[in-house]
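To fix ideas, we reproduce below a protein record of this kind.
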Amino acid sequence: MFDQSQAAGPRYQRAFGAVGVWDMFTRSLRPDSGGHRRLGVAVRPKRRTLAYDAVLTVAVTAYTLFVQLILLPALAAADPKYAAVIPVGNLRLLIIVVSVLASLALALRRRWPLIPAVLAIVELWLQRGSPFLYPIALYTLVTRGRPGWAALTAMAGAAVPVFVPLPTLALAPPLPFPALVTFTVKMYILPTIVLPVLIAATVRTHRLHIGIIKDHAHRLKREQRLSASNARLEERARFARDLHDGVAHYVGLMIIQAGALEVRSSGAPEVTCTAALIGDLGRQGMAELRDLLDLLRSDPNATDGMSDQMADETWRREVQELVDRTQQAGARVTWRMTGEILHAGSAANRTAYRVIQEGISNAIRHAHGAEIDVAVVARPHLLEVVVRNGPKAAQGDAAARSLGSGYGLRGMRERVTQTGGVLLADATPDGGFHLSASIPTIGQPHDPRPSRRRRGNGARRDPIGARSL
C-alpha cells in the first residue's frame, strides 16, 4: 500500500506534525518560488477555472447592480436612517462605477490579482467599509502567492474604521470605546480580513500537499521507467554475452577452416576462390556480429555522432558492399537510391540495412537464380526500402522449403515496428516476391498503418512472413 507520509519524504512528514502544520501554514503565505514569479510572467489559468471565474464574475456583477440600483434606493426610501448613510449625487455615481468595475475585474483575478484588489480597496473606502468584493480580492492574493500585496491590502482594509465611520455604527446607538473596538473587531476585522486570510491559507496549504504528492508520484514513475530501462539493458547485455560465447566461436572456426582450405587447394583455382569467399563472408559475419553485440550493449534510442552527409555516405557504402558480396556469390542484384538520408539516426539506418539484407537473403533462398532489385527512396522524414525478386526456379523448391522457418521476416517486422514504421511482404502475380518497408527517421514519427494500394490479380499479402526464414 502506498504510504503518503513515507513516500513524500521529510517535507510531507513535517506537514502532519504539530510543528509541520504551522510550517505548511507559513509556507502557504510565502510567494511562489517558480520562475514565472521571478520573471514577472503571468500564469495562464485552466479552462475550468476560467469558467468558474466567469460564473463568479457574472453573479457578483449582477448582485452589485441589484444592491446599488434596487436594494439601497429601496432602503433609503423606506427608512430615513438608511438615507442618512447612503451617498448621493456624484459620489453615489462614482461608487456604482467602481463597484461594477471591481466586479468585472474578478475575471482577471487569477492572472492579474492586483487589479481586482486595488479596485476592491477603492470601493471599500468609498462605501465606508461595506465588505463584499474586498474579501474575495484578499483571498485571491493569498492563494496566488502574493503575501506582500496581501499584507498591504489587509492593512488598507483595517485602516478603514480608523478614519471612516462604519455605516453599521451610524445605524446603531453610540457605544463606549471598548465596546466600539469589540464591535469593530467582531463585525468587521474578523469576517472581512481574518477569515478570508485563514481560508485562503488553508486552501493554499492543501494545494501544497497535493502538489507534493503529485510531484513524488511523478518521481516514482520516472524511477520505475528508469528501472525498467536498466533491466532491459542488463538483459540485452546478458544476451550479447551468450551470443558472443556461442555463435562467435563457431564462426571463428569456420573462418579458420576456410583459410586452411584456401591454402591446401592451391592447385584448384575454383576451390581456392570459393574458400576465399567463404572466409570473407565469415569475417564479414564476425563484423556484423560485433556490430550486433555493440547494439545490444548500447541504448537502442541513441543516435550516431556523425553528420547527415557522413551517415548517408557510410550507409551507401555498406549497402554497396552487401550487393557486391552477393554478386560475387553468383546472384543477380541491382540497387539504386533516390534522395539523401537526412536526420536519420543509427537505429533507422541499421533497420533499413537489415531489411535489404533480409530481402536479398530470402530471394536467394527461395528464388535462386532470380533477378533481385533493391530500391531505396530517402525522404525528409522517411526511408522507403523495396526489395523485389522474380519467380523462383523449379529446382529450388525443395531447398526453399527446407530452409524456410518463418522467423526472418517476423523478426524484421518487429524491428521495423519498434522504429514506428511498417513492413509489408507481398507475392507478385508472376510468382515473385515484394518486400517493402517504411522506416521513419528521428525527425518525425511515421503512422504505421499501411496505405491502401492497388494490387494485381493473384497478388496476396503475407502478414506473418510465411516464406521468410
In short: Residues 321-469 form a domain with the Heat Shock Protein 90 fold (CATH 3.30.565.10). Residues 177-264 form the longest helix (88 residues). The chain has 18 helices and six strands.
